[in-house]
């Protein structure tokens, strides 16, 4: 057995299930899950139809590199969305089966175990970053993302010694769980540090297409590169997915793009890894990446749900609206219910609503766990279900405040 498996922490939802174990919520209240970032909006009908019409392609072994039409569609989308001058579909784009598997396998390619490697990660973080680093033989250096730094990593807090050992930096913008977006200055500073210390940046941008202002979409890492005149995207790779953008988590379709030298090594690894995307999925993905109207509709639905939560909960629970994404990173201390675990457990017990304690998404670093006293609420359910959830949470908080 790989002894590094022993370093893996229980997944957040294992901890959540243990927290809820033995609790019997009111049977009269239907369960509402706000804990998992699984979109519940219907997938686009035209994508489903494309997939259905392509089922005869199941008889074809897919290439790991994907069909040229998919890579070309992705390159075109990236150039339009992030204002890139050019992107070579032949060697700067690679289809993947969703960002989760790609973010994990990427570390296995990048990390050189022989040099005491370090992976730098935001804290809180998407758990795949940690697992990927540990199973690649690296140790993690966490950067606490708190209200004080607008939930963004502070590169200046990293010592030169850590930067010299760093081989890979994971960034998540818009962030999970906070929704914070890294601005161009932070991204370009990180790119300059990558040049100085020779590490690679993996930018998880799977929430980039859910944002509140149509005139201000989140900037991406490749866009920050382009604005510096770095059209080879040296040391920079981005990860995108159709799961959130197009409500297609079950399609398991995404891509990586950026530095062609890095992608050549990643393609070599993936050829042996055996993770080629089925051709019907590739054709359905082309249809999804080639259409923006369903994405506009998707954003409109999320705006409605955020407005609901703000209107219903705003007077009893201060809510900072995220820069982007579909999570609320809510402070639980206002409810006088103890910490984030207490809040989540009692909310489930009294109102049959599941939220995720923030500490499960973070690690103790620099003397604190930056997820404590917060819960992540994923506003993925349909509008009326979100209205019901916000109403019940308000009732829960008002009851707790009356008792105190």
The general outline is globular
Please identify the top-level CATH class of the largest domain.
Alpha Beta
Remind me, CATH topology of the largest domain?
A: Aspartate Aminotransferase, domain 2
N-C termini distance:
52 Å
Share of residues in helices = 40-55%
Uncertain ranges? none
Instruction: Count the domains.
Output: 2
Strand order of the largest sheet: 2-8-7-6-5-3-4
CATH architecture of the largest domain: 3-Layer(aba) Sandwich
The total of beta strands comes to: 12
Helix-strand category: alpha/beta
CATH superfamily of the largest domain: Type I PLP-dependent aspartate aminotransferase-like (Major domain)
What Rg do the Cα atoms give? 21 Å
Question: What portion of residues belong to β-strands?
Answer: 5-15%
What is the arithmetic mean of pLDDT?
Answer: 96
Q: In sequence order, what are the helices and strands, one letter per element?
A: HEHHEHEHEHEHEHEHEHHHEHEEEH
Major β-sheet profile: 7 strands, mixed
Total number of helices: 14
């Amino acid at each position: 057995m790989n002894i590094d498996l022993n370093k893996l922490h229980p997944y957040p939802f294992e901890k959540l299930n243990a927290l809820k174990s033995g609790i019997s919520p009111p049977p009269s209240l239907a369960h509402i899950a706000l804990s998992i970032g699984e979109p519940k909006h219907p997938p686009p009908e035209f994508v489903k139809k494309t997939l259905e019409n392509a089922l005869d392609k199941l008889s074809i072994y897919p290439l790991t590199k994907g069909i040229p039409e998919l890579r070309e569609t992705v390159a075109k989308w990236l150039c339009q969305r992030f204002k890139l001058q050019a992107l070579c579909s032949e060697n700067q784009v690679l289809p993947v089966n969703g960002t989760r598997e790609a973010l994990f396998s990427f570390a296995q390619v990048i990390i050189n175990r022989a040099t005491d490697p370090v992976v730098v990660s935001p804290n809180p973080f998407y758990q795949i970053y940690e697992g990927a680093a540990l199973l690649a033989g690296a140790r993690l250096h966490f950067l606490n993302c708190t209200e004080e730094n607008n939930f963004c990593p502070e590169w200046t807090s990293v010592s030169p010694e850590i930067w010299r050992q760093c081989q890979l930096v994971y960034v998540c913008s818009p962030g999970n769980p906070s929704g914070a977006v890294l601005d161009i200055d932070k991204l370009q500073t990180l790119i300059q540090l990558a040049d100085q210390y020779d590490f690679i940046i993996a930018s998880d941008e799977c929430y980039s297409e859910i944002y509140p202002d149509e005139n201000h979409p989140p900037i991406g890492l490749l866009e920050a590169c382009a604005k510096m005149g770095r059209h080879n995207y040296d040391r920079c790779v981005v990860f995108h997915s159709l799961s959130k953008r197009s409500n297609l988590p079950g399609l398991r379709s995404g891509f990586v793009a950026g530095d062609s030298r890095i992608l050549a090594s990643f393609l070599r690894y993936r050829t042996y890894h055996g993770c080629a995307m089925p051709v019907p999925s590739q054709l359905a993905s082309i249809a999804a990446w080639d259409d923006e109207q369903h994405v506009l509709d998707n954003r409109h639905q999320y705006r409605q749900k955020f407005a609901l939560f703000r209107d219903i909960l705003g007077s009893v629970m201060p809510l900072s609206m995220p820069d982007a994404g579909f999570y609320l990173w809510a402070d639980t201390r206002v409810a006088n219910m103890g910490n984030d675990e207490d809040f989540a457990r009692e909310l489930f017990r009294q109102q049959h609503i599941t939220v995720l304690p923030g500490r499960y998404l973070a690690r103790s670093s620099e003397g604190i766990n930056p997820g404590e006293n917060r819960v992540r609420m994923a506003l993925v359910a349909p509008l009326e279900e979100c209205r019901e959830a916000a109403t019940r949470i308000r009732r829960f908080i008002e009851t707790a405040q009356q008792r105190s």
